[in-house]
Amino acid sequence: EKRARGKLEKERRKVEGEVKITQDMVAELERAKREIENNIGKKEKDLSGLSAKLDDEQSLVAKLQKNIKELQGRVEEMEEELEAERQARAKAERQRSDLAREIEQLGERLEEAGGATHA
Question: How distant, in Å, are the alpha carbons of 13, 14, 73 from that of 2?
């Protein structure tokens, strides 16, 4: 009976040791699980923030692309206006040149007419 009691006590201590080890393992796994859940929560929060930032950046890009198109249109208009002004200036210069030539010819004819009257 002593032997049986000793054996039983030994078996009880062994089982208690195994239970303690198992409880420690469960506690460690629960701690690891909480840590992983916290990390997941942080990652989800980070992802949400990055997603919002991406949306903002995409809106800004769209707005800037619209501005670029508008500015390109204005540049084209101004280039057309500049070309029209160049053409108008060239035409005015030709007309000025033609008028200067006419004035010179009229001056020469006036001199000839004045010379013919004196003679």
Answer: 16, 18, 105
Separation between Cα atoms, residue 52 and residue 59, nearest integer Å: 11
CA gap 77, 71 in Å, rounded: 10
The position carrying tokens 């707005």 is 63
Q: How many CA atoms lie within 13 A of 42 on its CB side?
A: 6
Token pair for residue 90? 């060239």
Q: How far is CA 43 from CA 17, 40, 46, 57, in A?
A: 39, 5, 5, 20
User: In terms of pTM, does the model score above 0.85?
Assistant: no
Q: 6-26: per-residue pLDDT in tens? A: 889 899 999 999 999 999 999
Residue 53, CA distances (Å) to 44, 48, 58, 59, 91 in order: 14, 9, 9, 10, 56
Query: Which of the residue ranges 2-6, 62-66, 109-113 has the most confident prediction, judged by mean pLDDT?
Result: 62-66
